[in-house]
Amino acid sequence: MNDFNPLRKFLDTFFGPLRSWLGIFILIFLFSIVVFDGMVNDWGRASQGLGNLVTFFNESLWPPDWSVLEPRAYPVCTVYPTFMDFTCSTAWIGMVETMKIAFVSTVFGAIISLPISILASRNLDSASFFYEYLTRWNDGGIIFLLVSTLSYLPRFLLAAFRSLPSIIWAIFFVILVGYGPLAGVLAMTVYTVGYLGKLQYEAIEGMTKTPLDAAEAMGLTRFEIAFKVVIPECANDLISQVIFMFEYNFRHGTVIGIVGAGGIGYYINLYLKFLQYDKVIAYLIIIFVVVLIIDFISIKARSYFTEDIGLNRPSWKSIFLPSSVNK
Amino acid sequence: MTNIPKNIEPIIRLNDVSIGYKHDKPLVQIPNLEIFPGEIVAIAGPSGVGKSTLLKTIAGLISPISGSIEVCGKTIPDSPKRGKLGYVPQSLGLVRHASVLHNVMLGANAGHNTPIPFIGVCLPSSFAKKKAIQAINSMGLEDKISEPIRRLSGGQQRRVATARTLAQCPELIMADEFLSELDEKTVGMVLKEVTKYVKSSNSALLVVEHDITRAKMMADRLLVIDDGRANPFITEPTAMEVKL
Q1: What is the pLDDT of residues B31-89, one digit of tens each?
Q2: Percent of chain B having pLDDT more than 70?
Q3: Is B221 in contact with B4 (CB distance < 8 Å)?
Q4: Chain-centroid distance, C-alpha A144
Q5: Which one of A133, A213, A222 has the shortest CB-CB distance to B93?
Q6: A:212-231 residues touching chain B, CB 8 A cutoff
Q7: Domain of residue A284, residue span
Q8: Helical spans, DSSP H, in chain B
Q9: Residue A137: its pLDDT value, please?
């Protein structure tokens, strides 16, 4: 009997792939295009964008005005030797301030986030951590209620700190403490606690369970498990994340100055207001170069804390050159 | 089987215990089991039958599906007193980025150091450190004392896990295939040290051993877990005879 079914053949040919993951991805992509199309009412504007960019680039952005690297008129630069006088420039002063904000907020954020992330990690069973202590004072139904609330509190805190971008925190702290790096440090610290805390508790939750099993069977306290088993076991990941966070904070530190929270963003905002885009692009190029350098240093520094020490560590050459060139 | 005086309390007592991860599908059913001080009991059986799960259940890491388990005088889910139970998991459970001494000190602190109330941290103890160094030396790892675990071979890591448990001086040692990856000479050395500790301190050793010949050689009693569901747990009193 010939069971050839042309409709089935047609469906298998055109819709067979939909049964696979690829089909699902294609469907999601098509859906995103439909959603995008629903938001845009005039596609003609997109075609004008490239022309606008060329005009803007030629008339306002290029060439960059490198006077931002020259010493400020006031206060008078007294740096000697004179070729070092760029350290009196707004670009240098702003960049150093941004770096200081990033450094201080990363250190403060890491110190605050570590205990919170330990309490937030589900594999460390923070509920029993609280329970262990609270039952010493009172053992009853209220303790269960309190413990179940407290076990969610660290995650709630981290999510709350992370839910606002650092620039919104910066606006908030500028209102509270006024313009300057203090607002920047506070804003970046709060954001670091939220972001780094999440990275840290995910690293802790990703660790193998057997050291915890062995420690629990031995009867170690929650504190001993956290500080003698978990932190040493995850130390490489945690340190690597702190270095990444510094790099991240530096990049974001350039933005928070726009709202008055210190750093190079203050000068960018200043020149944006005066429509001096050639100076703005000079700052952006400087930021780009410094971010690249920090990124490269971060790759190298993090390689000291990755798994197979000494085996896969990148050389300076391999960081700066693409792998195809670096053979 | 060793002759146990009648008035001696067992270190482990299992009554009608079913264990496993799913309540409707118990892996192993154990009608009755008692392990006494000074005994070495080996659990043998094919892979995936539930030997390691039994060890985890006795260690209090998994709740039994039914029945009661009493370990070192406490009924699960109550944990035995700190340091009474030493556990060497199959994948060892070592802190890989820390040194050999740090890992063995975990056991030594659990066994010989009391944490400060309300804080849960132990102050440094020279006695615990002395015990840890003794255990490391007994495993022939004195030249590796400051090495991080990740730089040691699989066999050396097994010896560190054994040293951690010996430094703890527990009443019950539970070891999951702790002799695998070791050469014959090192097996002899490790086994000698562990047996010496168990016999001298009147503690007990419950060991999962894949190699049935080795299990018979080391154990006073051999417990074979079969694949069958009805009554898969068989006590085989011939182990001592084989050993003799």
Answers
A1: 788 888 988 998 888 888 888 898 999 988 888 888 888 888 888 777 778 888 999 99
A2: 90
A3: no
A4: 36
A5: A213
A6: 212-224, 227-229
A7: 90-320
A8: 51-58, 100-112, 126-138, 154-168, 184-201, 212-218, 239-243
A9: 57
Interface membership of B61 toward A (CB under 8 Å): yes
Tell me whether A128 touches chain B (CB under 8 Å).
Answer: no
Rounded CA gap, B69 and A299, in Å?
51
This complex has an ipTM of: 0.87
Give chain A positions within 8 Å (CB) of B106. Answer: 215, 218, 220, 224, 228-229
The two tokens of residue B223 are 């417990």
CATH number at residue A144: 1.10.3720.10
Q: Give A221's contacts in chain B (Cβ within 8 Å).
A: 115, 120-121
Query: Tokens 């490198």 correspond to what residue?
Result: A66
- Specify if B138 maps to a domain: no
Tell me which of B55, B97, B100 to substitute to probe the interface with A (most A C-beta atoms closer than 10 Å).
B97
Q: Is residue A4 part of a domain?
A: no
Query: Which pTM does this prediction carry?
Result: 0.76
Collapsing DSSP to helix, strand or coil, A206 comes out as coil
- Asked whether residue A209 is domain-assigned, the answer is yes
Give pLDDT, residue B89.
92
Q: What residue type is assigned to position A169 of the chain?
A: W
3-class state of residue A153 by DSSP: helix
With 0-12 / 13-18 / 19 or more C-beta atoms within 10 angstroms meaning exposed / middle / buried, residue A316 is exposed
pLDDT tens, residue by residue, B188-220: 889 899 999 998 988 999 999 878 888 888 888
For A223, which of B93, B107, B121 is closest by C-beta distance?
B121
Using pLDDT thresholds of 50, 70 and 90, give the confidence band for residue A3: low
Tally C-beta pairs within 8 A across A and B: 93
**A143 vs A141: CA distance, rounded Å:** 5
Cis status of the peptide bond prior to A63, with omega within 30 of 0: yes
Angle at A149 between CA A148 and CA A153, to 5 degrees: 120
Q: Does B79 touch chain A (CB under 8 A)?
A: yes
**B193 to each of B99, B126, B185, how far by Cα in Å?**
22, 23, 13
Domain count along chain B: 1
Residues of A with CB below 8 A from B135's CB? none
Q: What is the CATH number of the domain that holds B37?
A: 3.40.50.300
